[in-house]
Specification:
The protein is an all-alpha fold and 404 residues long. The chain has helices spanning 2-5, 11-31, 41-65, 70-74, 76-106, 114-139, 142-148, 152-170, 180-201, 215-228, 235-262, 282-295, 299-308, 312-341, 367-403. The chain contains 15 helices and no strands. Pfam families: DUF2427, Ytp1.
Length: 404
Amino acid sequence: MVLGMIRSRWHVPVQITASVLAVVGYFLAHKHKGRQFAPNVHQSFAPWLMFILLGQVVAGVYLKLHIERGFLGKIRNVIVLAHGISGKALPVAAWVQMLFGAITALGFCQGDHLGQCLAHFIMGSAFIGYGIMLTLLLLVGQGWIRRSGRSQEFFDSLVIAAWGCVNTFTEHRWGSAWAHNDIQHTTMGVVWWCAGLVGVWLSRRRNGSPKRNIIPAMVILLTGYAMSGHPQTLMISTMVHRVFGYTLMGAGAARLIEISFVLKDKATLSEDGSNPNSFQHLPPFLLYASGFLFMGATEEQMQLLSDAGIDHISYLLMLYSIAFLLYLFVNMLLYLYAVNSEPASVKLDPEHGHQNGHLTNGHVRPHHERARDAEEFELEGLTSEDEDDAADSEPLVKKERRGE
């Protein structure tokens, strides 16, 4: 995806290699004689993923041919749009398919475990996605934020409010008795949409200009506090949930410190946003870690670890290691995009501030500079004429002296 966005010459070879590997893997999954699985969600989602991949390849071949006449030429803009959307959706679909594969291989999320399993993987993926969005906005998204005319917290609060509305009405099975966890999850949804509305309101000044606020950071901090005291049946599950809550609280506190004390309510430290403070990497990374911790804290996973005798410290360190690797991968992709999408640096004339030294590049020079240049040109012409006259008269003087 990134290679395509920067129009790299490696885009097509990498795309072809990945497509060939995907097709080979698809057929190997159906032709092997090893472990067999009953119909499952991983198997059901695979054809849709292959359909997206096939459409992406066909659109890429069409665009590579540069057909600009006839019917195919008229729909070129539509194909370009569809190719871009499918290319950006493919990583998300691949992430979902990888989760489905892990769940299917371990036999998780069956029967009564389905509800809490969905909650953990959806919310965990949401935390990771939020961390990736913060990384995007931190490293390459400041220009988009300025063009939108909104503060970053406006979009954060809007999503928080919408998500809170969904949680308020979906965390309890209506018509059945209220359980302790149902009350906690529902009240958490209420807090989310209430705080989200406040964040949207505070995201603009009286004159309509964007303004930073700490409401999304407070929501993350409160959510972490609630999760740190979530009741569990197993000791290892209690410890994992507690560390997950502390990590989420750390992300919220770090975000609050970043906005209030590092940025001091500014959008960014540098004008172009290309040189963030080192502390600004902490909030998104902690969101990555929170997502992996929450996805790795389902009932079946905790029971499996307890039966295997694995302590929570080793498990938590492994999840943090995965978070570090994903954060490295995202930063590498964003670096690749940034260095290849920015215009080449141009040297400026230190005296006039023009590009390419003394050339004006279309700039109108001030009147006094033009007058000075004209005077210098005239003086240079007079000086050169006097020198030429002196050079022409010198041989004559020498000849007269010889004649004497």
